[in-house]
Design goal:
single chain, mainly alpha, two-stranded parallel sheet, disordered C terminus
């Protein structure tokens, strides 16, 4: 198939297109192959397959045994745009995509078989009627939840706990009986294992193929979409780092010939952002906003290096990691849903 005309547009023009004008389909894409793999895993367990459609984000609507796949998974040009706008692509590689699909399959199976009505399910995972928070504060070291998607996502809501536990159970490579031995989360996995055996081969109670917010009905532009998305995942770090920053850099006269800290950090920005995001399990976009704030503060204060570039790079990496981890473990930290 030939590329659509918009694939050759620069980002600024591409951002002005509406979702409904993209004309995309799951068929023939890489994500379709990953969908087929998860479908095979479900069929091997005797469970119904969800239906799939393209939308603006990953999600499974309440009451629908189907999965929305984000538009950027359907074309490499849109994957490139997602990376440029958000600095990372959720589900962009095979392993990450399969993790998300297994998670969403948990929601779809929950909907298909009305599992949230079961008393034991509600006792173990909590009440599905619990309101979804806009943000949540995770406990990174808790062993009451499985660890599957990033940001300790199982802790965000009872339904997400169920879907995450299902995803670990479904993954043929998870070795969950060994991985979670001695964890309180093991009780949830054992329950999922019994429950799925009970419903295997039975007819789903809900068989709707309804698609919620398919691309063809979304009238907003990609620019509007990314403006909202960046606001949602953006910076809410307070400026509590200045005293530590002045220990790394200085505007004292004796350092006036040294490199400007703002220039130095701008050069390292991508590497530092990626490394600290990996260390702290934080969104790259959020760390990048923090870096932008730090660089601007260094520029305003005319701060300069006081040591070699190599030593300063190491010290700054530690500084940024500590600041992020302090934030993660304070009452101020919230992860956006």
């Amino acid at each position: 198939m030939s590329d659509p005309a918009w694939a050759a547009l620069p980002d600024e023009q591409l951002l002005d297109l509406r979702f409904c004008d993209l004309g995309l389909s799951v068929q023939g894409t890489e994500v379709e192959q990953r969908i087929l793999q998860v479908n095979r895993e479900l069929e091997a367990r005797g469970l119904a397959r969800p239906h799939y459609w393209l939308s603006d984000e990953w999600f499974t609507p309440d009451g629908v045994p189907g999965i929305a796949v984000p538009f950027y998974m359907a074309h490499p040009r849109l994957t490139q745009l997602e990376l440029a706008q958000m600095l990372e692509v959720e589900g962009g590689d095979e392993a990450a995509c399969l993790r998300i699909l297994r998670h969403e399959a948990g929601h779809a199976i929950d909907n298909a078989y009305h599992l949230r009505r079961r008393r034991r399910r509600r006792q173990l995972f909590g009440l599905p009627a619990t309101a979804y928070p806009e943000y949540y504060t995770p406990k990174p070291y808790s062993k009451s939840f499985v660890q599957h998607l990033d940001h300790w996502y199982a802790q965000s809501h009872p339904d997400e706990d169920f879907a995450e536990t299902f995803a670990v159970w479904l993954d043929p490579q998870s070795m969950w009986t060994t991985r979670y031995a001695g964890w309180p989360a093991l009780r949830k996995l054992e329950y999922i294992n019994r429950l799925m055996r009970d419903i295997a081969g039975t007819r789903p109670e809900v068989r709707s193929t309804r698609a919620v917010d398919p691309l063809s009905r979304l009238r907003r532009t990609l620019r509007e979409h990314y403006q909202r998305k960046r606001e949602h995942y953006g910076l809410d770090h307070p400026d509590f780092y200045e005293s530590d920053l002045r220990r790394l850099f200085s505007n004292a006269p004796e350092f006036s010939k040294n490199m400007l800290a703002a220039r130095f950090l701008t050069r390292l920005r991508k590497e530092v952002r990626s490394t600290v995001a990996s260390f702290t399990d934080s969104y790259q976009y959020t760390i990048d906003r923090l870096l932008e704030s730090i660089i601007e503060r260094c520029r305003t204060l005319n701060l300069r290096l006081t040591d070699s570039e190599e030593v300063t790079k190491t010290d700054f990496m530690v500084f940024l990691t500590v600041q992020t981890m302090n934030y993660l473990h304070s009452g101020r930290h919230r992860v956006a849903l």
